[in-house]
Amino acid sequence: MCDLTSRTKTLLLLLLFLLASSPPFSGGEVAESCTETPLEFKCGAGEAAGGGGPVLVVREAWIYASMRLDPDSLPRCHVQEYNLEYKAGSFLQYINKQCGGQTECKFELQKHTDLQRREDLKKYRRGALRVVYDCVKKTDFHRVCGSEVNSQKGWVQSVGYPLYYLGDPVCTITLRVDEGQHIQITLTDISLREDAQPGNKGCRDSIKIQENGTELLEKCGVTNVPITVTSKGPVLNVTLTATSKLFPKRGFLGHFKALGCQTPLAPADGYMSYRNATHAEFWCCVHHAFSDTMTRRRVLECGDRTQTWNDTLPDCVDLEELLAGGNITESQYQNLVNGTTVLAQAERLRQAHIVYDLVVPAVIMSVLVLGNAAVVFLIIYCRKGVLEDGVRCEELESIKANPEPPDTIDNEPCSV
């Protein structure tokens, strides 16, 4: 009994430690209620308001029709995420307006939306509300204009969110991940002025997402569903353009994450020679080798679904130290240094095949091209010589027919 109590205390302490060391955002908590029941949110219990504590950010907000488990007795509604056929609509813009950026909030569908003015309000009765949200610390938002964010995931928002947004000058935040990775950014709240300037069909204020000068998205006004953009490379620019220095709308908010495997740290006494979206190649320095395979080269492959590497990357060991410590023999040391191991021979053979398959055909093609060029040159040269000989013969015939020969006559023989 004492052991059980001790184990219970240990588990509780471990649980408290995990809660205290939780990441900036958890990946989405879920709140559910019936359409007639208020949704209540509370972030940062016990923390002073206005500080750097967590605030509410909403990822998704959906209405599911006719999902009451027991409409007569149960006041609670439950929604399975995969029940898409019951998804009747989104109320994301309304809950963002009421609760976005707040520490505590209560949301009522009929009170905080314009559904009461719609004829289809009846179909939402006896339905369910499902909200996916996070509680994010204010200090974890990236909002500084001109900054570059090097992170695998995070949140971005406009300065002043959710009370107002600023303009003049243009505000750009650059997102950067590792080479070989892509960036997926999802804008969960957009609330910008959308009326166009006179003579201009575009937005007066807008948020733009660009990659290498190419515009992937331009949006203004209000969004009621999340908007997701995925880059082709490792860099994205998020830019807010506004014509007023301050405008009383929320601005924008979104979260981003890296797609693909994160680049591993280079091993001790080694380096990375190549990296793309699917593979990464590492080498150990001269007279060093990976401790588990005793080879200098290792290629890692990134899994498409798991987004993890298929192998580990141990540190490189000094072969001279292994020899001095008696861990390898002199013969093994010479084989490793001179590259006479089976793997090294296979690598050299592969390189020899590359030379045979690429270099030799290239040399042969070059010789053929040069040979053909020489033949063409000789043909042109010979034709030119024959033409000159013919001209000289015609001059000789004209001289024989003329009774007054010129001062000098070309005595070069010519066959008539």
Structure description:
There is one protein chain. The chain is α+β, with helices and mostly antiparallel strands and 416 residues long. It contains seven helices and 23 strands. A five-stranded mixed sheet has the order 7-9-18-12-15, with helices on one face. It has a five-stranded mixed sheet with strand order 8-11-16-13-14, with no helix packed on it. Strands 1-6-3-4 form a four-stranded antiparallel sheet, with helices on one face. The radius of gyration is 38 Å and the shape is extended. The protein starts with a helix and ends in a 15-residue tail after the last helix. The N terminus and C terminus are likely disordered. Keywords: Disulfide bond, Membrane, Repeat, Signal, Transmembrane, Transmembrane helix. InterPro entries: CUB_dom, Sperma_CUB_dom_sf.
Topology:
Blueprint: H1 2-20, E1 29-34, E2 39-42, E3 54-64, E4 87-90, H2 92-99, E5 104-107, H3 109-112, H4 121-124, E6 128-137, E7 141-142, E8 148-150, E9 153-157, E10 165-166, E11 171-176, E12 182-191, E13 206-211, E14 214-219, E15 227-230, E16 235-241, E17 246-247, E18 251-259, E19 270-275, E20 279-284, E21 288-290, E22 297-301, E23 316-318, H5 319-324, H6 330-338, H7 342-401
Parallel strand pairs: 7-9, 8-11
Antiparallel strand pairs: 1-6, 2-5, 3-4, 3-6, 9-18, 10-17, 11-16, 12-15, 12-18, 13-14, 13-16, 19-20, 20-22, 21-23
